[in-house]
Design a protein that fits this description.
heterodimer, A: 148 residues, alpha+beta, 3 helices, 7 strands, 30% helix, elongated, B: Four Helix Bundle (Hemerythrin (Met), subunit A), six-stranded antiparallel sheet, four-stranded antiparallel sheet, globular
């Protein structure tokens, strides 16, 4: 083989490996996207149960109740237009509070209750998840209160 | 007065950087030694000036000077001294100042230790370094001035985010930045080489120590961050594929690839233009990481408060650095002469495979991190890409990478044979397969993938060991051969084995962990993972700037007292924030991990327990990796002061097949 052909060969081999890997990446990307919805969008979309997604909004003031000696938390997530009941079993992040922004990941039950498998913590209490801010804006009730 | 001094020093530093970024470049183009020599003095002056600015801000923090807005926003007089100090970089402005300081430090280090660099190369490297400095200094001065005053000064500050008041996180940013910014030197060398139109073995020998040092710090920084997440977030996890974590992983992957491809340039004068490209990309990814964290464009488990103006500035800067670097590359790289030829099965071939797979990993992380951003821009839909994606891509790409990792060092340069290498690895291979089988059937059969990964971890350690033994063992003179092993080889072996230890730790803590949660009353007992846990009460404990509820969990094993765990919930009085403090008992083989949840008001407390086998190995292994890097750094060949002497005194054992 001439040096030129060898380099070509090597290049083709590398491209092959890279292409295969990229295909793998793209396939798993399309399989593993988790969409973010606000309570209004959930109501409009009629999502199938067991479909995993993220639900975000504000924790509705006065909606948080504890069950099973504090191990299970029930609360409502609202975008000020609609709200959805959420059940979560586990320790809540330290920043979970009524009236604060929250993002939860999980799926709807057949009865329309959101079964959260994860409640995401935020680094900073002045921080508002951008999706939540947008969802609130879309609902037409952007309040500055949550930002301070 | 002192804050103004700091502000003034920053302005002066910007002026010096402007001079340093232009005059030596011009001097190098015109061949004027006096103009080129200016770069060294300017680099040292820049370090001094940015140092003064950093000292001024530190002074403001230590003395709780509440006339400075930054101190008001992030400090409090009742904070412990350590966190007053680390609070300097626990915020946006201060951390950018730290970044600039480290950039100046690296610039000055090139100036101070680069004595035997060719004059034009040194002048150009220092000029590029200074231009990067201009970008950051202007960013500080125009969008995030840390020395801004407030009037009238408030009586006390707002305090530092309690999550950051922790020894692990206190030193996470400096280490991470040493890594990020260290790649700026590789970038500067790459751009300078493109301007010169010459990349050779000597160039690679100059670039490699800087890259290696940056890589070691980045490794330590990432490990420290992950350790912090492990014990502070209280979820028992150590890596969350959070955008901010990915932001640090991408430059690490690119840097690891660069580290390996630079060897090929140095030893065989091949892969030159690829190495230059990697150097540009590694630093660009560091900047991208900063952009992602600082601008708040991505939802992250831990994003700082965001500011669009700053994000826009960093984005523009990122485009200038990456675009400028790549543009120059497209223009000049064809001029780089291709070097040594080699067969696909050879050390070079192995290192190319390493580079291919590592860059694919970096691309996968990049895609997973940026895809939500693009989808949002294009369709307005909000998505997140979580751990399932990263697990699905990382595992299949890591498998060939790990498989090849132990074989590569056995191959000789230029052309080699696979079979002799594989024969010498057969014991390691057999033991690894056995380990995977034992893992699947005897330790924990929940996940086949975990068992295979366990086998890979064992393979990495034993395969590396086999490589080292191969160099040393066999007949007389073993001790002598051991002594004469090049430091670079010892370092490589430590780092590769360290990676194996990390893999084992990830398997243990990620797949074999046990978890239980229960509401417990005083005196309640619960059996978990072979231990019995009894709640002996919860008491209130005052701290310097917090009040804690501290639970006492008595742990017994088979009736005999074993240990006591004391998880806490701390209420930081200034911010009115609750932070859970986990209690971890480790014996370096497994962690017992407890977090305290809320009380139901009637005497019951939610307690969450984790049993994490091999968890400490994650950080232990990462420390090995960094240690390997540092050992390799002491190799004479890489010593910045003695870049060219090594060639002649290389012992034959170092390169058996040449």
């Amino acid at each position: 083989m001439t040096p030129k052909r060898k380099r070509l060969w090597l290049l083709l081999g590398s491209m092959g490996v890279l292409g295969a890997a990229l295909a793998l990446v793209l396939v798993s990307l399309s399989d593993n996207l988790v969409f973010f919805y606000s309570p209004t969008q959930v109501a409009e979309k009629s999502l199938p149960p067991d479909r995993r997604f993220r639900l975000g909004g504000l924790v509705e003031p006065g909606s948080v109740t504890k069950e099973d000696q504090g191990q299970v938390t029930r609360f409502r997530v609202t975008d000020t237009r609609r709200s959805i009941e959420v059940v979560y079993r586990g320790l809540l992040p330290d920043l979970f509070r009524e009236g604060q922004g929250v993002v939860t990941e999980g799926s709807l039950s057949a009865g329309g209750v959101f079964l959260a498998r994860e409640v995401l913590a935020k680094h900073d209490e002045t921080y508002m998840p951008p999706e939540v801010a947008k969802a609130l804006k879309d609902a037409g009730h952007w309040r500055d209160g949550a930002k301070k | 007065m002192i804050p103004e001094l700091g502000h003034f020093a920053l302005i002066l530093a910007l002026c010096v950087a402007l001079v340093q970024g232009t005059v030596p470049l011009y001097g190098a183009a015109r061949g004027e030694p006096a103009l080129m020599a200016l770069g060294r003095m300017a680099a040292l002056a820049q370090l001094a000036l940015v140092g003064v600015a950093f000292a001024a801000l530190t002074h403001a923090y230590l003395t709780s000077d509440f006339t400075v807005a930054n101190v008001v926003a992030n400090s409090h007089s009742a904070k412990p001294m350590l966190y007053k100090f680390t609070g300097v970089w626990g915020n946006h402005e201060g951390s950018m100042l730290l970044w600039t300081l480290i950039l100046a430090l690296f610039g000055a280090a090139v100036a101070a230790f680069g004595e035997n660099l060719p004059e034009t190369l040194r002048a150009r490297v220092l000029a590029i370094q200074a231009l990067l400095g201009v970008g950051f200094l202007a960013f500080l001065l125009f969008t995030s001035n840390p020395f801004e005053r407030v009037f009238p000064p408030p009586a006390d500050g707002n305090g530092l985010n309690p999550l950051l008041q922790d020894p692990g996180l206190a030193f996470h940013p400096p280490l991470l930045y040493l890594g990020y910014v260290g790649f700026s030197v590789a970038y500067a060398f790459a751009v300078a080489a493109l301007i010169e139109g010459r990349v050779d073995a000597a160039w690679a020998r100059w670039v490699r120590p800087w890259t290696l040092a940056a890589w070691c710090f980045l490794t330590l920084g990432i490990a420290l961050g992950s350790w912090w997440a492990y014990y502070i977030l209280g979820w028992g996890g150590f890596w969350f594929w959070d955008p901010v974590e990915n932001a640090s992983l991408m430059p690490w992957l690119a840097g690891t690839a660069l580290l390996h491809s630079a060897i090929v340039v140095e030893k065989r004068d091949a892969l030159k233009s690829w190495t230059v490209l990697l150097a540009i990309l590694a630093f660009s990814l560091s900047l991208l990481g900063t952009f992602l964290v600082r601008s708040g464009v991505l939802t992250s488990v831990h994003a700082f408060a965001q500011d669009p103006a700053r994000g826009l500035y960093i984005l523009a800067f990122l485009l200038a650095v990456t675009g400028g670097g790549l543009g120059l590359y497209a223009w000049r790289a064809p001029a780089l002469k291709p070097g040594g030829l080699f067969q696909p099965v050879s050390r070079e071939g192995g290192l190319i495979l390493n580079n291919l797979l590592l860059s694919t990993l970096a691309v996968a992380v990049l895609l997973g991190t940026l895809y939500p951003l693009f989808l949002d821009l294009l369709t307005g839909e909000k998505v997140s890409v979580g751990p399932p994606f990263f697990n699905a891509t990382f595992v299949p790409i890591c498998a060939p990478l790990f498989a090849a990792l132990c074989v590569g060092p056995f191959l000789s340069w230029k052309r080699s044979d696979l079979w002799p290498a594989l024969r010498r690895l057969q014991i390691a291979f057999a033991v690894s397969v056995a380990a995977a089988l034992i893992a699947a059937f005897a330790i924990d059969g929940r996940s086949t993938l975990a068992a295979i990964a366990f086998g890979f971890g064992v393979w990495l350690i034993l395969g590396t060991l086999a490589g080292a033994l191969d160099r040393v063992a066999g007949g007389a003179g073993a001790m002598q051969r051991l002594r004469r092993l090049p430091r670079a080889f010892i370092g490589m072996s430590i780092a590769h084995a360290g990676l194996g230890v990390v893999v084992l730790g990830c398997v243990g803590a990620g797949a074999w962990n046990l978890e239980a949660m229960r509401a417990m009353k005083h005196g309640d007992r619960m059996s978990f993972a072979g231990y019995e846990f009894t709640l002996r009460g919860v008491e209130e404990v005052p701290g310097p700037n917090w009040i804690a509820e501290r639970a006492t969990l008595e742990v017994t094993r088979g009736g005999a007292p074993f240990t006591t765990l004391r998880p806490e919930r701390r209420l930081f009085t200034v911010q009115r924030r609750l932070i859970a403090e986990t209690a971890i008992q480790t014996n370096l083989v497994r962690d017992l991990y407890a977090t305290l949840g809320e009380s139901d008001g009637q005497g019951a407390w939610v307690v969450r327990l984790y049993f994490n086998p091999l968890a400490p190995w994650i950080w232990l292994g990462a420390a090995f990796c960094a240690l390997g890097g540092f050992v390799s750094l002491t190799d004479r060949r890489l010593r910045v002061g003695a870049p060219s002497r090594r060639r002649t005194v290389l012992p034959p054992a170092a390169q058996p097949a040449e």
